[in-house]
Amino acid sequence: MIDPVRPIQLSDIEAARPNVERTALRTPLVRLDLGADGPEIYLKLENLQPTNAYKIRGASNAVAQLTDEERARGVWTISAGNAGQGVAYAARAAGIPCSVVAIETAPQTKLDRMRALGATIVPVSYEEAWQAAEAHAFEGLDGTFIHPFDNHNFIAGHGTMGLEIVEQLPDVKTIVAAIGGGGLITGVGSAVKAVRPDVKVFGAEPETASPYAYSLEQGAPSKFPDWQASFVDGAGGKSVTQRMWQRMQPIVDGTITVSLDQTSAAMRLIAEKTRTIAEGAGGLALAAALTGQAGDGPIVCVVSGGNIDLVKFAELVT
Q: Alpha-carbon distance 124 to 3, whole Å?
C-alpha cells in the first residue's frame, strides 16, 4: 500500500535535521565570480557530501525513521547511482543490508562506489528501473523499499538543504535545482516556501530529457517524447509521475531547459571557479541560471552531485 501524497511540512524538515546532520555535511555556499556585469550567483556545493551528492540527506532521514521491523528486513532502492550511494551509506552506518536496483548504463564510478559501500547491485535497464519506481516494487526484493524520490521522509531530508540556503543567504531571490524524479526540488522548495514564500524556485532540465517542461506545456504529467540518454544521467527522466506532479505543482515556479553544450560549459565553469567536480546533473542549475531566465539574483544554484567518471569529465570540459 503506497502512502498518499501529502505536503512536506516545515515541522517534517526540522525533525529531519538531526538525522541528516549525523551523516551529511552542511555544505558551503560560495559566490561565483562572474565579474561586475555578471548575475549574482551562488553555488550550493552538494558535490562535497561524503557520497558526493545531495541524496545522502534524504537517505539519512529515511533510514533513521525506519521501525525495528523494517530495519530487520534490510532496505533497497532504485538508482542511476547517487540515491543508491546515499541509501547504501546510511544503511551501512545503521548496520542494515542494502540492495540497489541499478540502471545498467550508470557510470562505472557510481556502480563501483555503491558496491564499495556494501550494496548488492541488481542491474536493470532504464525502462525496468522506471517501471519499478512507478510501481514501488521489484520482483525478488522483499526488503523495505526506500524510493529514490517519491518518499516523504526522503524528500524531507532534502528540505534541510533549503533551510541551510536561507540561513546562509537571507536575501536570496531565486533557487535553481535540477529535476530528475522531482524529490530534490520538492524538498528544497517546500523548505524555502515555508520560511520565505517570496523566493522563486525554478527547475533545470536538459533539452534531451525535459519531462517537467513538457508536462507544463501539456497541463498534466506526461511522458517526454524522443527521450535521449546523455551524460546528464542524474536528472532528466522519461516522464513525470502523477504523484510527483502533485508534489511539485504548488512549489515550483517554472523550469528552464538547457542544451548539453550549456551544461558541459557550466561543469567547466564550476571546476575553474571552485576547483570541484560537478556531474552533468550538477551543472544543470548553473547552466539554467546563465541563460538569464532566473533573473539577476541573488540566485542559488544547487550543484547536486559530482559523481562522474573522470575520463568522461575531462572529455566534456576540454
A: 26
